[in-house]
Amino acid sequence: MRLDREKDALLVVDLQHDFLPGGALGVADGDAIIAPIARLAPAFTTVVATQDWHPRGHVSFASSHAGRKPFETLARPEGPQELWPDHCVQGSRGAALHDGFPDAAVTLLLRKGTRPEVDSYSAFRENVGPDGRRPTTGLGAWLAARGVRRVFLAGLARDFCVRASAVDAAAEGFEVVVLDDLTRAVFPERGAGVDALLAGVGARIATSAELDV
């Protein structure tokens, strides 16, 4: 698969300390993808890195809901909310991108989940808020203005923020390629369901070895 430096973009999702082994919400083997992503990033003119950037007391934290525990699902009027350990709190080390990801390669750093009452998995839109809407982050328009036609995704976690970003990228009209070997999942056993969802929106699942850089 030949890359087009001007029309392809790399979207690197949440390579943050709290999502890596030893972090508050560590994804198993997540650290294994840092070096290969770092090697790949310079092949793209446009590289977007996302960063969960939650205020204290964020709606996604189990600690924000009396009697609730991490990994439970809370029923809310706007839809189900997965509950997590406190993670990626604004300004904390856990929220910082891993040093192994080259800052010089990043064209845009996009922070998400910044509003206390609204979660945000996708790089393109927030989750459904109390008003029933999913506000855009503006990323789709920004990429389009740069002439990007195809988005390659890598990062954490495959079954949440990578998956949601891929679905929304397709909805924005981009060709979507998920670099499977450069992602890891919170719940690997749900992989078939994620694969079916990605296929349903026309996203391609590939590996970095297939890229002609």
What does this molecule look like?
Residues 9-208 form the Isochorismatase-like domain. InterPro entries: Isochorismatase-like_dom, Isochorismatase-like_sf, Isochorismatase_Nicotinamidase. Pathway: Cofactor biosynthesis; nicotinate biosynthesis; nicotinate from nicotinamide: step 1/1. This protein is of the alpha/beta class. It has one domain: Isochorismatase-like (Rossmann fold, 3-Layer(aba) Sandwich), CATH 3.40.50. The chain is built from 4 helices and 8 strands; from the N terminus they run βαββββαβαβαβ. The chain has helices at residues 34-40, 139-145, 158-171, 191-200; strands at residues 8-13, 46-52, 73-76, 79-82, 108-112, 150-156, 175-184, 204-206. The strands form 2 sheets. It has a 6-stranded parallel sheet with strand order 5-2-1-6-7-8. β1 (8-13), α1 and β2 form a beta-alpha-beta unit. The chain is globular. The termini are close together.
Structural class: alpha/beta
Biggest sheet layout: 6 strands, parallel
CATH class: Alpha Beta
- Helix share bin: 10-25%
Our measurement of the CA-to-CA distance between the termini, rounded to an integer number of angstroms, reads 9 Å
Percent strand: 15-25%
Helix and strand run: EHEEEEHEHEHE
What do the pLDDT scores average to? 95
How many whole angstroms does the radius of gyration measure? 16 Å
Helical region count? 4
- Quickly give the CATH architecture: 3-Layer(aba) Sandwich
Uncertain stretches: none
- Give the overall shape: globular
Strand order of the largest sheet: 5-2-1-6-7-8
* Number of strand segments: 8
CATH superfamily: Isochorismatase-like
The CATH topology label is: Rossmann fold
- What is the count of distinct domains? 1
